[in-house]
Amino acid sequence: MGRSPLKWWLKTERGQLVFLEGLGSCLDVVFGQEQREEDVSDLRALFTFVQAALAPVDGDAWQGRVLLLDELGVLLSLGAAPVAVLDFVHYCRVAVCSRLQGNIVVLVHSNEDSGDKENELLVTALSHHSDLILWAEGLATGFCKDVHGQLKIIRRTSLRPGGERDSLQLYQYKIQERNVAFFARGMSAAVL
Amino acid sequence: MAARAGGEAVPAARGRGGAPSFQRKGPPGGSRLAAIAGTRPAVRHGQLLLSTGLPSLDSVLGWCGAGSEEDKYGVYSHLLFKYFLAEGVVCGHDLFVASAKELPTSILKELPAPLLDNCRNEVGEEAAAVKSEDDSMQIAWRYQNLPKMEVNFDISLVSVRIFSLYVTLSARKLKFCVFFLNIAISSILKCVVKHFLLANSNMNCGYARLLQSIQKIIYQEGFDGSHPQKKQKNILRIGIQSLGSMLWDDDICCTENPENAHSITKFLYVLRGLLRKSLSACIITVPAHLIQNKAIMERVTNLSDVVVGLESFIGSERETNPLYKDYHGLIHVRQIPRLNCLICDVSDTKDLAFRLKRKQFTIEVRETVLLHSLEPKRWIMPIYGYMTRHILKLNDMTSHSS
Fold this sequence. Notes:
The complex is a heterodimer of chains A (192) and B (402). By secondary structure, chain A is α+β, with helices and mostly antiparallel strands.
């Protein structure tokens, strides 16, 4: 993705959702007729797009802006260096969180004994800077039909002045067709 | 992979109990989706689903065919590859076969044909014999409750095909395109030099040419809806053999730090984009045992919709292990599809093995080996697999009708 400028495809629904689908956009790049500019190795163009999409427009009543990034590991697969991805996230944080008082939600995959060092680096760095971490993983005991996994909610209160410890909450969940049911550990519907 | 038929999620107001629920806003029912032969509409998430050609694999994966890791000698993955293409031929889908190893036309000559009625009866008789023997066996109580592979869809809606490996499809009905990458030795050297000199990683020429070829076919034949008046809608089944091997001019199988480590992942990303935008599905076999960099395999898995690993016992110490004597290998489901929904129909059993019977390749629940070590003569473990159960059901149906 950092090799040529992408033609951004914007789709606005009721003016509240701006959606960039990488899969669709990449086809225009790879099979398009346009001339490609010099290779770039960072994600500046992507950040420019994000900034433009979230810029306040006169007359709009947006209260809180949320930037959803799904999923950052794909950027590594496409050839971006971890440093470039972290720089991009940093710039987004400044633009969205500090200036626009918004929030950023980032999705990354991770494996326990992963061989992907770049991805692990990304995950570790992002975890350090996050205010809230939602960590969904399978059960340590293996596959279970009634409990699909557990969710750890880590509030990074240690980052705030006062220096308290991070608070950790654990829930278990079961994924249903259109919903996810959360419950305390050991309290799944099958057991009760 | 499945073709997207539209539909968006709209967040509804908070439902009962305070939990927000998403409602799907999409085309009602399956009337519009079921227009293409060989597909089954999944009304739940507005997708068209395809069969892989192996009913037992369908029930494991929920009727979506896609990538598969190659086993060590490529024997069994090649079988799955052929089953996928054969299912396409029988359903009347168009095929695109790409290979760097053998001529695609010779692959197409060896596709298995579906078992015909007289063969089916033969298989049915065998199964009936097995069944009557079972009744007289002492079955350990534990194994009566052994979970069978559940059938997650109504069999009567679908004509399940059983492919025989001894009979091949005749070529007259095949409509296919082929892509054969034949790089002469001198040009391999040139490419190696080029990659050595270029600092940045680039998608290698073999993959780029394959992508161009696929995109051209999708566009020209109208699989992406670009020529709606030309012909009736059909599915394109793409098969790519041994992606990532040296024959595709990729060096990820040679070294742990390959020059163009991102080539294969970029290729898969763009391919996925092409498949999402068209009525097509793709099966890819990858020699995972040769790829030395584990990060690449993880990224390939994350970029795929479905990944199935085949571990064959050929040449390993498990071949002579009595615990595995009835099987030829193990199946590891590494990724299940989650297209347009939070969760898909998949089998509950994860401990799967496969074997190659005289005419068929079957996937079965591997029985636990707990009691096998104790007095094997006394404890008899009936092996139930989806194929066997289906054959029994067919037998019931034919005997009722006669």
